[in-house]
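Encode chain A's predicted structure.
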Amino acid sequence: MNKKITRSLLALLLIVAISPAAITAQQKTIVVSGSVQFDVPGAKMQIFTGSGPDKRVLAEFDIDENRRFRQEIKVDQPGVLSFDCKKTELLNFWAEDESVELNYRGADTAKVKSTSFTAIKGGPKNDLMNLINHNIFLNRQMSNSTSAVLKGIVYTSPAERDKATRAISDLNTQDLKERMVYLSELFPETTSIVAVLNYFNYQRDRDIIDKISAKIYAIYPNYPPLDKFYKTKEEAAERTRKMAIGATAPEFAFPTPDGKLLGPKDYRGKTLIIDFWASWCGPCIAEIPHLKKLYENYKDKGLEILSVSIDKDGKEWLKAVETIQMPWKQILSPNAGAELMGLYQFNMIPFIILIDKEGKIVNKHLRGEALETAVKALIGLSK
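Encoded structure for chain A:
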């Protein structure tokens, strides 16, 4: 092979090997260390990624006899990790190429409770995370204060109360957005700025998101955290479209107590209520008497109910089913409903949806009288 070509090829390979995209794709190990001033005996510390059904614990550990800790974390891809200090404080930090030190207060034994939060000692990327965390903290303090004021006001009607609540909520949302925009203007080339993107609305604030992303992509083409952000948001948007009013309810099939698989498609031709619940959920249990009344009054008009439990413990589910005696079919979702909650786009229960005879979603987030009104309208009994 021509020596000049060989040298050129080697140079090209070297450039690719040391490019920002290649560097960020390599696995790194960072050290998370620190201390806890006041211990919570028996409680553990966790480092994890994600939340809710997407939560993945990377490490669980405790402090030593000197109330210190040191944990190595392998970083497959840069991004935000969360540190839960014995249920006393939850802190986000940026995991990429900076080891971090976190010195927690721990159990708050003071008569006057502390409203501060732990600062991260690390490097430029986590200096920015400190600012992000602090601005989120200030926004939440403002939100809590305004909520307390709202509770002390006497309103002329529930509608006026709801109007005031929405106005304050919109104000707090706008405040946080403006804080994140300001930080993105101050630190446009710091990779941890990607952490602010989740505090924008992916649809309404897309121009802001794309502007922030473009500056990082210009330095780090195909930056994995940004690629992951867009992929995750697009997948979520697609799931939301599939759960829109008028869309066909997504299919699933889970076992009844006797092992028979059931799902929405088995109720075609019927008006169907799907009740997502769990045996440990107080509001879910409180809603069941109303569902029983609905079923009794409208089952002869073609109404069916399917209860889908997200219980983690199958024995507790079976015990509740036996105790409550619901006269309709019961099924149990695997993995405590982790996949199902993503498919049906809910994170709180009870989550109740109403489906028509063709299997299309008519309404959702219904309970009590609102659910009965919707059922009557769907089966043609409303005036």
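The CA atoms of residues 199 and 234 lie 16 Å apart.
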